[in-house]
Amino acid sequence: MAKTALQFQHNGRDVAIFVDGGTNLLVALRELIGDMTPKFGCGQGGCGTCSVLIDGELHLSCLTLAETVAGRSVETLDGIKEGPNLHPLQRAFADNFAAQCGYCTPGMLMAAKALLNRNPQPSRAEVVEAISGNICRCTGYEPIINAVLAAASGGRARA
Amino acid sequence: MTRHRGRGIASVNYPIGMNLGGDPSQALVHSNPSGKFTVALSSIDLGQGMKSVTRQICAETLGVPVEDVYVDTADSDTGPHCMGSFASRGTHRVGNAVMAAAREARGVMMEAAAEELEVNAADLDTDGRGNIHVKGAPHRSISTKDVAIAAQFKQGKTISGRGIFLVPLSDVDPETGEMSPATCYAHACLVAEVEVDDETGEVDMVRMDSAYELGRALNPRLVEQQLVGGAWMGVSHALYETPEPYYPEPVHGPRDFVEYLMPGPGDICPHDIAVLERPAPDGPFGAKGPGEMCANPVLPAVANAIFNAVGVRIDDLPITPEKVLRAIKAQGGARPQPRR
Ligand code: FES
Ligand code: FES
């Protein structure tokens, strides 16, 4: 099958790759670009751990054809840290014990980031809704919800 | 249609680790010339926090700062033997092995320090901040780093220790069948409150209140994280998850997360947890460990709560809306039980 040349922005950096027709964005990111932060959970839209932002909007990279991101900007977990510092959401996840095995964490963080980008002061119900496409096996969600709320309140400690 | 509230309770007496004795784990501890220590294990941290807890146990036993200890759970091919991370055995079995190894390594470290300070090792103590000093004379001290360097390059000593924890085998009395299946028990009690819809059979979690007795909580935040997450898994097993939801044939089983159901963040309920600490005589620093017990009491408590709400007794998991509805129909309607 002929390969297609594909250019897009990956975490603010221009990348150019060749993809087979039908390659999904998750495979392109992990296998062709080498960004292992989006995880493969189910490959069919059921778990959310492959979540990335495309032009600032939350998408499941396993259900996105790689070719559709031509010329667009793709942000993954690898791009959210601020220089040598953790992103406030990452900090809040650590402080609130919001990760155990960590497999859902990249998707949770991207879903939370998409939420805070459009709604910096979400309610608890809005946080729940924002991460409702993401499955976590370990935490029972409670610590994740608390972490997102803590990051939203600007790192001020919450009870 | 009516939504019925019900409350159920369950208690658990949970043996830590595998029954009948045996169940060994090994640990090796050694110092690097930098004065930092490495704990080698084959026990795996699945996210429950075994690395953190064994690190704390090792640092506390050696008498060095926790930052100076690194836990390497690399490889069951090259690491010391471990039965595995299951049966709630990590903190208790592996922790005890780490403690034994760290004790032996501490002995060598104190001997090496004694040689440098020209005193008797029995007169030395650690300050927990990376120094070893003469008891009652804190100014006569040497850093663990300098001890490590001296041991490595001058004295030719390996500051290291080996540890194993093995539960004595329990003999079975051939006459009575009597034996001691376990040496260490943790306990829990959980009250679940649910709401059952008698038209759809759906069960909603309203709240949970629980108390867990698991020996000394070596890392209270990690204990809490396991209890919160584990209770959710209990809810998931009680009401949602099964590899074969409706038919005995695996071919009809779920193939993905659309069919293999798990509760999402919108399905959780408030859960108030009390942790009771009753140190275990044979646990590392009195610890037993939360482990599987986090999920165990939830299932019977939810089943009892459903009985309390609508009077149907479902003994087949998960308790799906279909099962609840069929049972309600079979008894001719919901029969709420007295509230306790
Ligand atoms: S891997 Fe994309 S949703 Fe599961
Ligand atoms: S931390 Fe393990 S799946 Fe979320």
List keywords for this structure.
heterodimer, A: 159 residues, alpha+beta, Ubiquitin-like (UB roll), DNA polymerase, domain 1, 2 domains, five-stranded mixed sheet, 5 helices, globular, B: 340 residues, Aldehyde Oxidoreductase, domain 4, four-stranded mixed sheet, 28% helix, binds FE2/S2 (inorganic) cluster
Provide the low-confidence segments of chain A as ranges: none
Rg of chain B (CA only)? 26 Å
Helix content class of chain B: 25-40%
Number of helices of chain B: 6
Whole-Å distance between the termini of chain B? 23 Å
User: Which structural class do you get from the secondary structure elements of chain B?
Assistant: alpha+beta
Strand order of the largest sheet of chain A: 2-1-5-3-4
Tally of DSSP helical segments of chain A: 5
Q: Give a count of the beta strands of chain A, DSSP E runs of length 2 or more.
A: 5
Residue fraction in strands of chain B: 15-25%
**Rounded mean pLDDT score of chain B:** 94
- Quaternary structure state of the chains depicted: heterodimer
- Give the CATH architecture of the largest domain in chain A: Roll
What is the second-level CATH architecture of the largest domain in chain B?
A: 2-Layer Sandwich
> Biggest β-sheet of chain A, characterized?
5 strands, mixed
The sequence of SSEs of chain A as H and E is: EEHEEEHHHH
Count of individual beta strands of chain B? 11
Widest sheet: strand ordering of chain B: 1-9-10-11
Walk me through the structure.
The complex is a heterodimer of chains A (159) and B (340). Chain A is an alpha+beta fold and 159 residues long. Chain A folds into two domains: 3-78, Ubiquitin-like (UB roll), CATH 3.10.20; 88-155, [2Fe-2S]-binding domain (DNA polymerase, domain 1, Orthogonal Bundle), CATH 1.10.150. Helix content of chain A is 31%, strand content 17%. Chain A has helices at 25-33, 88-95, 105-118, 124-130, 142-152; strands at residues 3-10, 13-20, 51-54, 57-60, 73-75. In chain A, strands 2-1-5-3-4 form a five-stranded mixed beta sheet, sandwiched between helices. In chain A, strand 1 (3-10) and strand 2 form a beta hairpin. The radius of gyration of chain A is 16 Å and the shape is globular. Chain A starts with a strand and ends in a 7-residue tail after the last helix. In chain A, 44% of the residues are buried. Chain B is built from six helices and eleven strands. Chain B is an alpha+beta fold and 340 residues long. Chain B folds into two domains: 3-16 and 184-330, Aldehyde Oxidoreductase, domain 4 (2-Layer Sandwich); 23-167, Aldehyde oxidase/xanthine dehydrogenase, molybdopterin binding domain (Aldehyde Oxidoreductase, domain 4, 2-Layer Sandwich). A four-stranded mixed beta sheet of chain B has the order 1-9-10-11. In chain B, strands 4-3-2-8 form a four-stranded mixed beta sheet. In chain B, strands 5-6-7 form a three-stranded antiparallel beta sheet. Chain B is 28% helix and 24% strand. Chain B has helices spanning 50-62, 90-117, 144-155, 220-239, 298-310, 321-330, and strands at 3-15, 22-31, 37-40, 69-72, 124-126, 131-134, 137-143, 160-167, 185-197, 203-213, 271-276. The model of chain B has no long low-confidence stretch (mean pLDDT 94). Chain B is elongated and about 85 Å long. Chain B starts with a strand and ends in a 10-residue tail after the last helix. The structure holds FE2/S2 (inorganic) cluster (2 copies). One FE2/S2 (inorganic) cluster (FES) binds next to loops of chain A.
